[in-house]
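>> received
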Amino acid sequence: MPLRHRLLAALVAALWGVNFLAIHASLEQFPPFLLVAMRWTLIAIPTLLLVPRPEVPLRYLLGYGLGFGVLQFTFLYWAMDSGMPTGLASLVLQSSASFTVLLGVLVTREKLTGARAFGVAVAVVGLAIVGSQRAGGATWWPFVLTLLGGLGWALGNIASRQAKPPKPLHLTLWMSVIPPIPMLALSLAVEGPDRIVDAFATSGDAWGAWVGLAYTVVLGTVVGSGIWTWLMARHPASTVAPFSMLVPVVGISAAWLALGERPNAVELAGSVVVVAGVLLTSGTRRRISGGRRRGRGRAGSAATPPPRQPASAGHPAVRPS
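>> returned
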């Protein structure tokens, strides 16, 4: 994976880390299922009018929309609305990396090297360390919901990887067409019309909720997910997915500064272990082997050319091609 692609993956992690603050601000005003529907509807309408449908099989478009758009955010928003701390949610959701690697091996038969498997295992240990501090008692249900959100993200990763879209941004935008109808139906059935109407009726002064929604739509979805899909189309899922484990480093730090969610020493140690796992997983084997090949090429080019044969009578000397 080239350095510039790793930097793009890190940028997505930063955008998604801050995105949890934006979600928190929006959930202060809107119920979770309605908020998921609003998020995707704001993208789906201009997409249907302006963006050509991606040239991918319909099953992968549906799989990406249902996994990434519906399952991930339904469970994540539900968890955060049920009391999952913002910073911790950004961490637990990164269980998607482990789910993605596992599904990549089982579904798409991707090869998993020993070094990469070890890196993923280290990152999972880091997630377990942090989760152990909050997963007991009354917080177990939001914790499980967030894990289910990570599984939905992983299913979306595999679908987008299999789609291999020629224009990844088109796939990202058209994925937004899938969630609005099922999410609106779920909101009406669970949250009810009265709660929906009340949320809009009192949203005039809730500028923070609207700013958070705008950030989620533009930076968190169009920019972040667009780059992510572009990377997933060019590299194995097991290479790209572990970079998502950098999201909680940003998410926990942002929640600490903005919301006062101060992690304890064990949680900070677990975050360090997560970062170490990401670094081990990305590896440098390809770069080293490439350098060796270039080295051999230079050695070959420096070899002494064969001596030029003298011209014989009636036959001009042959020039080497």
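>> Residues 3-284 form one domain.
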